[in-house]
């Protein structure tokens, strides 16, 4: 499997588990309410469907807009989407660190307010927003990843997405066992690190495109050459590059961007508020 398809599997897997977590919380809460739950769940699943439609429309709009642009503008567009995807990944990780512990309570509070008003449309909107958020992130991350790598066939991409979703269902099942096999905390900690490396790789891709377009200066020539040890043009090196942002022969602006990225990310993650939020709620 190529590094690009591996990233597709990872993104679908990670974001699907998050979406399943949210849907699981909403469904479990409604089940415990008893009377009227059948009607409420109809609104819940309608909201889930509407959220998926919003995500698909966003993905379609991203691809359609990119295809209609002239070649050079298309490169600038891809660089923009790649950099936005990198920023959104970092923002998502930090948000989960700061709000993950209270996510379940916040969802249930919103549901209680909707139930008190006998407004099941509130359930619909809550499910729509929750799923659309996860789905929109997935669409942007996937577009950024596909823009950054070599093109894969449509069937291969669909297969990778199917593998990612199947893994998500299996992972969610394990997580629902209550931490005996795999805990939510371990899952989110491991995948957060993987996401941050993926964001670094997308950042380096965006920087590379902007250098090619002469919108950013290289600042220096090649600072070093480790291609004899691990070439980012080879199979293994290409995979490492796609997953971490590794460059065998970086120029000055790439080194500055890579080091600056990790300095900023580690600083954001080390703020007191993020340190205190260390657990993820169970569904």
From TrEMBL:
One of its GO terms (cellular component) is high-affinity iron permease complex. It comes from the Bacteria. Belongs to the oxidase-dependent Fe transporter (OFeT) (TC 9.A.10.1) family. This is High-affinity iron permease. It is found in: Membrane. The lineage of its organism: Bacteria, Pseudomonadati, Pseudomonadota, Alphaproteobacteria, Hyphomicrobiales. Pfam families: FTR1. It comes from Blastochloris viridis. The chain crosses the membrane at residues 12-30, 42-63, 75-94, 114-132, 152-175, 187-211, 251-270. InterPro entries: FTR1/Fip1/EfeU. It is a multi-pass membrane protein. GO terms for molecular function: ferrous iron transmembrane transporter activity.
